[in-house]
Amino acid sequence: MEGTRILVVDDDPSTRLLLRELLERAGATVEEAGDGQAALRAVFELRPDLVVLDVSMPGMDGWQALERLRDVTEVPVLMLTSHAAELEKVRALQAGADDYVVKPFGRQELLARVGALLRRARRAQREEAPETYEDGVVRIDVPGARVEVLGHEVGLTPLEFRLLLTFVRHPGEVLTRERLLDLVWGEGKGVGADQVKLYVGYLRRKITQATAGDADPIETVRGFGYRWRGEAVAARD
């Protein structure tokens, strides 16, 4: 864990202290948040390598915080809960958590699970070879998470960035809302087709604003879904 940044989110100061001591002894740098709102702010400010997130908190609980996190980041999340029921674990994994530990937890088990999540995340980063995409309208620096539209840099949220990558990696293919749900959000994330439509609209608006309305590479195929036509739009212009 040497050199990793871990955010611990729990409303119980004694639990946060215990987790801090365990993780810092293992070499991690640890930051704390006492509720879901503070956790969201900390994720944006600190960009941690992993989040340890308690389920039961006042105000925005762990489930709500996880849902908000998964809209904007793929950071690994280890959920903490007092409930050992199988349905609770299934709910956590379907909501987008990467693993699940029941309180009171064994110290070695928690460290092992944190270490496994960090190794998995590093392996996934290595397997994603650096790449750049360009089709005449959009240029994407994938490892740098930077996007240019006709030479103008455009700021996207992590979810919008994943949506754009999904489109450009399936050029000319009609992607239904259900397929986009699977490719961008993953199965069982509690997101509906209407939210897909909403985020496609957000992405389209940012692209067309950068081109002053001259280029819209996202084609709506009525009754089916959406198709990316970046090269065709560039050739036309």
Q: Into which percentage range does the β-strand content fall?
A: 15-25%
- According to CATH, the homologous superfamily of the largest domain is Response regulator
CA(first)-CA(last) distance: 51 Å
Would you state the CATH class of the largest domain? Alpha Beta
Helicity level: 40-55%
The total beta strand count reads 11
Query: Could you say how many structural domains there are in total?
Result: 2
Helix segment tally = 9
Radius of gyration, whole Å: 20 Å
Can you characterise this structure?
- The chain has 237 residues and is of the alpha/beta class.
- It folds into two domains: 5-127, Rossmann fold; 132-236, Arc Repressor Mutant, subunit A (Orthogonal Bundle).
- Helices cover 47% and strands 19% of the residues.
- Strands 2-1-3-4-5 form a five-stranded parallel beta sheet, with helices on both faces.
- The radius of gyration is 20 Å and the shape is elongated.
- The N and C termini lie far apart (51 Å).
